[in-house]
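sanity check this chain:
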Amino acid sequence: MTISNETKVGALTAISITLLILGFNFLKGKTILKTGNYLHAKYADTKGIMISNPVYVNGYQVGAVADIENEDVSLKSIIISIKLKGNYEIPQNSIAVINSNPLGSPSIDIRLGNAKTYFNSGDTINTAASAGLLGGVMDKLTPVADQLKETIKSLDVVMKNINTIFDPTTKNNLQSVIANVNKTTASLVASSASLESMLQAQTGTIAQSMKNVNSFTKNLSDNNDKITKTLENVSKASDNFSKADINGSVEKLKTAITNLNTIMAKINSNEGSMGKLMNDPSLYNNLNNTIKSANILVDDLRMHPKRYVNISVFGKKDKTGPLMAPIADSTNRK
């Protein structure tokens, strides 16, 4: 079967027109056969978004705008079709927000929710209006403006109170206060003049005091070595004092005092030789009699030596009786 040239030209023309339409739609981001994952979003204001504008999730591009069409002739609701690049798990409580960019093209930002169920291809995602850059600024400025209004109202009330307080009597009192301030200022000027006279280099009292201070500091500087040695000696003495066994010495002193008290108690009692010597009068009397007898014996030996020692061959024996009392000179030695 022979195909005519006209048929070939017509078929080629139809194929060319089809390829042209498909290529034009492809360049616009549209596709005739809607294959892949799609989500739909309804907006009242698309903010100039166009086909092929990017769609982000957490800053990562997950797709692009595939189609934009109005839901009805009133144009109150516009449907945007989003084509995803893959089979992403997007929670069903996520929200699609259009972010306008004054310096570039707007984009769609999908803010993920926390639901455990995910969108299927062809589902409609919830949307929310984005405040934009200027809207965010205005949202921040609105509370400040409200506070400024309240501040102005409070300032107005304060000014009214001030006008009420400043009656003629109060104004006169303020004038009196200002006059007193002027007098005080004059007194301060006089005081500063007196202080200036005191600060004169030659005759001022403060200058003389500073001279004395300088002299004192000069003496300290001249005797710096002596002061240093004195401080070193004090430091050494304090070290030795800290190293001394004060507690041990005190304990030994307490022990010695205790022993001394024990000895004194025994001396005051009739126990022991010392106690009897100090407290027993019979021992004293016996000792006194012994001393007296010794004195008599010494006197008798001195007066009658022949009675005890006979060294003469021709001498005769002393037959006088012994002394019964010490002689007068020995009695004085008692």
About this structure: The chain has a mean pLDDT of 78. The CA atoms of residues 159 and 202 lie 57 Å apart. The beta strands are 37-43, 54-57, 60-70, 78-84, 95-99, 107-111, 124-128. The first strand starts at residue 37 and ends at 43.
